Structures are given as C-alpha cells and as structure tokens.
Model the fold of this input.
Amino acid sequence: MDEQKKSVVLSRTTEIKPNKKLRVMEALNGPLRMLPVIFALVVIWVIFTILNPAFVSPRNLTTLSVQIVNMGIMAIGLFLVLLHGELDLSCAASSAVSATIAAIFCINKGLPFIVGFAACIAFGALIGAVQGWIVTQFGAPAFIITMGGQMALEGLLLLLLSESTQISLVNHSLTVFTTIYLPTWLSYIVLAVGVAFLFFLSYQSYSQAKKNNLPVKFANKVLFPTVGVLTGGIIVLEIMRKYKGLNLAVLLLIALLAVFAYILTQTRFGVHLYALGGNPEAVRRAGISVKNTKWAAFIISGAVFAFAGMIAASRLQSVSVSSVDDSIMMNSIAACVLGGASLSGGKGNIWGVLLGALVMGSLTNGMYLIGAETFTRLIIQGLILVVAVVLDAFIVNSSATKR
Amino acid sequence: MNTNTAEVIENVAPIMSLRHVHQYFGGVQALIDVDMDIYPGEVIALVGDNGAGKSTFLKVISGVNIPQQSEIEFEGKTITISNTLDPVNLGIQTVYQDLALCDNLDVVQNLFLGREIVNKFGRLNESEMERIARECLDEMGIELTSVRAKVSDLSGGQRQAVAIARAMLGSPKIVLLDEPLANLGLVQREQVGKLILNLRSKNVGVVVVSHDLAEVFAVCDRVVVFRLGEKVAEISRPEITKERVVAEITGSNTFMEEDE
Done:
C-alpha cells in the first residue's frame, strides 16, 4: 500500500521550463494582476500633471475623489453581477428611480430623511429582486431582462416626475452624502478603526494558520498589510486635509468596498459567487442553490445601485427626468473591466473596481482640466478600455495558466 | 440470480445491493432487470458497447436517473433514491466525466465547495481547510505543486485526482467514477489507476464506467458486462481476460456457451 502511495506522483506532464517572458505573464495573470491598471493610472496622472500641475492639487484630488463615488458604487453593484456571469443594464435607471422615490418621500411628502433613504434602498433591492427572480426562475438572459427593465424604469421615472420634471434637493438632508466633509480628527479616528479591524482579521488568519501548522510569517500576513493600509490612509488624509478634508461620500465608497471585499473573500456566499462564474454546474452538483445565490446577488446589487443613485442625487442636488445617465453605466462597466472583472464571470478583485473607477474618473477630470473637447475625452476613454481588454486577453493567452 | 460471483469476499456483506432495476426512456428499455452488489474494498468495472446501459446504471446509483422499477438495499436497509442528494447523504460520491471543478478557484476551494469550514462568525477558516486538504491529498498520495494553485493550472491527471480527492473528502462508502481515464495520457492513466487502487485499500466500494478495457482490467476485481440494457455477464478477478470480456460485450460467445 505504501508503495502505491509513493508511486502516485502526478506531475505536470506538459511542463516546460518556464522562460522569462512566460514567468512575467504568469505573474501578471496571478499575483500582479493589478499592476497594468496601476501603471496606467500613474501614467495618466503624470501626463495630466505635466499638462496642468493643478491636477494634483489637493483641491482637484478632492474633487476627483467625490466625482468617482457614484461610478465607483455603481461599479461595485455591477461587479457583484458580473462575478456570477451576468450583466445588469438597468443599473442607471434603477438608481435614478430609487433616488427619485427618496426625493418624493422626503420633499413632496415631507417624511423624515431616514424613511426616504430606507425607501430608496428598499426599492433598489426590489428591482434587483424582480429582475433576478425572472432571470433565475426562467433561465432568461439577464442582458435582455435588465435591458427591458431599463426601459420600463425610464418610463416609471417619467411617470413619477410627470408633474414637475425635477425635484430640487437643495438644502435638504438628502444631500448630506456629498456636502459633509469630515473634520481631520474624525477622519483619523475612522482610519484607526478601519486599521484595527484589518489588524484583527489578519491576526485571526495568522493565528489560525499557526494553529494548523501552515507556513506563515507574521510580517507578511499581519504587519505589511496593516502598516501599508495605515500609511496609504495617512497620505490620503493628509492630502485631503489641505483642502476641506475627507468627503463623507468617499468614506462611504471605501467602507462599501471594504465590506464587499470581506463578503466576497471571507464568506461562503462570496466563494459561491466566484464559483458560479467559473462553473455553475459544479456549484449545482456541490449541493448549493444556484438560483438563490444568484438571486441574492441581484438583490444586493439592486440595493447598491439605489445607494449610487442617492449619491448622484446628492451631488447634483436634484433628481430629474434626465437623471438616467447611460454614460455613468458605461463608465461603471469600464471600471469593472479595467479592474480585472470579466464579462464571463468568476474573475477579479473588488479593489480593482476602485482602480478602474480612478482611471475613468481621472481621464474625465483631467480632460476637463486641460480644456480638452468632449470628443477627445470620449475617444481616449474608449481607446483605453479597448487597449485594457486586449492587454488582458494577451496576458491570459500568453501565460501557461489557461486551458 | 448469480450474486455470489464475488467469491473472494464472499463472507463480507455488500454495502449496496440493487435488484430488478428497470429503466425506460419513452419506449426504449435502457435497463432490463439488472441486479448488482457493491462490496467494500472492491473495484467493479461496468463495461459494454455504446448504449449498452452501463452509464445509465451508474446514473441510477448516483440518483441522476430514477428507475421505473428497482429494489435497493443500502447496508441492509431498503432505501429509495429519488434525487442526486440522496446518494450523497448515504455516502455515495460521484466523480463525473466532466469533473465539475471550478477552473477559476484553487484546489482547496474546489475540494470544499459547498461544505466550506467557517468560524462562529461565518468567516471562512482557510487555514483549517488548507490543512485538511493537504492531509487528504497526502493520504491519497497525490502530489501537487501547491494546494493554492488554480485548477486551470493543473494537468488533466491532476484535475482527475482533485475530483477524486473531492469525492474522498466526504469519507464515502462508495465512489462512482464515470470514464475516469478519458482524455488522459498514458502516464496519467496509470496514475489514476493507482489512485483507484488506493480507494480500494481504504475499503471503499468503487464502481468504474470505462471504455478503456486494458487499463480498467489492471485495477478491477470484477467486470460487469452490459449488452442492450441487460447485464449479460459478471466476471471475477481470476477469469478476467480481454477475449472473454470482448466476447461478452459483442455477444459473440453466445454459441460458445450453448456448445458447452
């Protein structure tokens, strides 16, 4: 028996000595997956700074950070849907209608902020629930179902705003999300709490690894991530404080990213979502309810879209019949793809969404700043997206890690 | 019914006994009155030509096909199998031909898909899963460069091994293997063969459906031959020869038997 055991050595029969290029490609396909988009971001920032040094001023960086919140949050919702291999084209309409519901509740009906906000999120979740139910129950393509949803919701928006084509939110508490800047002391407390959480979670992983006799280093597992985030946080806060400080919306974006990063990598639900993007049949055979998992993802993303709509309304200080912004949807999809998500599902890291949103947001912001025409901006944004996807395909195909 | 063919392990009670299994698909009789016993620590090969019923029978055991008529006993108790979860709950694991692995997940995640270990706050306990995965793979003699390698990075043989390890992780009593050697190279076939023997040594009842007669004969204790939905022969270890099995598969021995 022991002899049998020893002799079962499953080697990679097709293994060739990895050459340098292959190794680079494998790294880019694996641990360094975010490197190209970080590189692109640095290049974009350097170019804009050369063209107009005001680009890296604390004031403009603060503006940029607030500008990307709407796109970033919508991209989080889209990322959840993309992860299990679907697409939601109703996100822009869904967020506009949800925000309008909040405005009607609070402004027209005079209900308190919390009621309007809760109604907004609940309505977004409801839209996600209905569309997700249709998609999972009938096996219908989400692309088409949500396209229909988009049209229907645009109609609903016109109906809701048929009397007045817009509702102003000026001076109303619904605009708190983007008008409040955190005082420095408070933002540092928030950072400290965040870092403490990270320390707690990474220390828990570390001690579990120790307990299970796995090779693990305190420095790699706990120290570097914690210190890295702390340093990054301090740099960001120091830049922000030179203008007005950290905007509440930006904090909410980061918090949402952190929450979903936890859900996607540290919970069963998250693993199941990734697995669904890889092989739904394997998930089904593993005894997991494919329908319920997908449905839950649709509901959560619906709520996230509603929140994005709330942020947009807060920034524009109004909701109107023209609130459905298809360009924000396209930018959000682009942010997901730039951040490493795949339209066929199962790929990507949620923090990539932030990088993708920063790339798209920096281009818009910088192009305005240097006085470029809209057409230039659109052409360049489009080209960058195409180049990013081509580059990604090239990396995946060039590394040996494909079948 | 000649159920005493497993002479070597005559005194051991079968884990599972199937009697009078009938399966129709519309007007087509896919299985006609098939009987079979599965013993612990035994490798059974189901062979036959295309459409002979061997895969259909495997799917009856795994709960994919629900036969119109059957009497099934599991560890002495009469049971019914009405879905794919029933066999799993009994301790019957199936390794499908397409393996059902998620390419985008790593080995540990695949092994634990659907039965992840979490702490009391619902957080995945990655370390514990990794340790158990390593132990399981070690015990089966499966060597991988890393248990954190993505399944898409593995060779065909390694993927097959991961799929078998996934089945073993549920400490099954019976493992069903559907075409485990298909699409594998020569070396890998031998390795998977050894893995099957490894399962046997752990007292698991193994049922293999395969087209590759030579490789299967090397590891099986009993060959069950299907022809046109019927079980036509059951040949135990010493008598297994390629000629005899091929003759049974094609039906060319019918005269010979009559002559004798």
Remarks:
- DSSP finds 17 helices and four strands in chain A.
- The interface with chain B takes residues 1, 4-14, 201, 204-205, 208-209, 211-214, 266-268, 271-272, 274-275, 277-279, 281-283, 285-288, 346-347, 400-403 of chain A (CB under 8 Å).
- The beta strands of chain A are 166-168, 181-182, 246-247, 318-320.
- Confidence is low (pLDDT under 50) at residues 1-16 of chain A.
